[in-house]
Amino acid sequence: MPGGNHAQTAKGSMEMGWVYEVWAALKGMFWGWESRLAVFYLCTTVVMIFGIWLYRGRPTSFVKFLFPREVYTHKSNIIDIQIFAINLLLGVAGIFGAVLFTPIVAKVMLSNFIEWQGTPFQPLDVTWGRSALATLIMILAMDFCKYWAHYIHHESKILWPFHALHHSAEVMTPLTANRNHPIFLLIRNLIYSMVLGTVQALVLFLLIGQIDLLTIGGANAGYFLFNLLGANLRHSHVWLSYGPVLEHIFISPAQHHVHHSSAKKHFNKNYGEVFAIWDWMFGTLYVPKGYEKLQFGVADGKGELIEQPHATLKDALINPFVESLEEATGIEMLKRKSADDATPAEGR
């Protein structure tokens, strides 16, 4: 049956194409410079942890210090791995890219700026100084955007359940950074597109006539340094503080650990990713005075841990929709242990 063979061949080609796309995504994630999970950054993280291990007087064998069994065999870490796989497949399918349209917003806004100006667009010459300023503006804009996208997911009771999945991690590894609900990623990408597209249009209109390789390379270099200097320790069992002075400028791994803490005094602190200046500016900065023993997970309004709301992959993907709908309608749908149990939106 020639027709059947042709259909089987086409199906086989599609499956191979899908496998290739997944492999390409994994390769980009572990070998590309833009992903903090790149092998190079993971290796530099190991070197940093080795230095911390030496500084702390070799409390255990280095292998146990690097890979504590209670962390990497924890059920929470298993959910991290499953969510990572789901988001990888959705990314390959183009779901997240569908709302990442920064160039389109930049083009539309630039056209509007030119129209408002009322005269033909005359781009300025690209110089090192203008390019450096454009690079700095783009880095700050990206980080500012991340701060506010993070902030609104904590402050909105309807959006919080989708971000609560990230905060329900009871142990943290570098993979926990990818423990994000698909809806959170879609909303974040939408915010990035609108804000960054507008900023890029302003940079093009006021500073330089084109976003050249120097500008893009400079912005990438900023995140290269961020990933190089301990980004993976932000989600880990290893505490690393930069000290009170630097922690008013940059968010340290220790400060992000505090952000994940279930303690009430740590609620809604340290939203920033790279820079602490936004938290400092808007009153959400918390600078630890020294090492703090923390407990991770989602807590109620009193700072007491609640029952794990995402014990399975099904819970992780479905419960946020139900909890968000509960907040929107005021109708309780999920069965909880008692009437006194708080929803994640009421605490952390």
Automatic annotation (TrEMBL):
<feature type="domain" description="Fatty acid hydroxylase">
    <location>
        <begin position="136"/>
        <end position="284"/>
    </location>
</feature>
<dbReference type="Pfam" id="PF04116">
    <property type="entry name" value="FA_hydroxylase"/>
</dbReference>
<dbReference type="InterPro" id="IPR006694">
    <property type="entry name" value="Fatty_acid_hydroxylase"/>
</dbReference>
<keyword id="KW-1133">Transmembrane helix</keyword>
<feature type="transmembrane region" description="Helical">
    <location>
        <begin position="37"/>
        <end position="55"/>
    </location>
</feature>
<keyword id="KW-0472">Membrane</keyword>
<dbReference type="InterPro" id="IPR050307">
    <property type="entry name" value="Sterol_Desaturase_Related"/>
</dbReference>
<feature type="transmembrane region" description="Helical">
    <location>
        <begin position="126"/>
        <end position="149"/>
    </location>
</feature>
<feature type="transmembrane region" description="Helical">
    <location>
        <begin position="189"/>
        <end position="208"/>
    </location>
</feature>
<feature type="transmembrane region" description="Helical">
    <location>
        <begin position="84"/>
        <end position="106"/>
    </location>
</feature>
<keyword id="KW-0812">Transmembrane</keyword>
<protein>
    <submittedName>
        <fullName>Sterol desaturase/sphingolipid hydroxylase, fatty acid hydroxylase superfamily</fullName>
    </submittedName>
</protein>
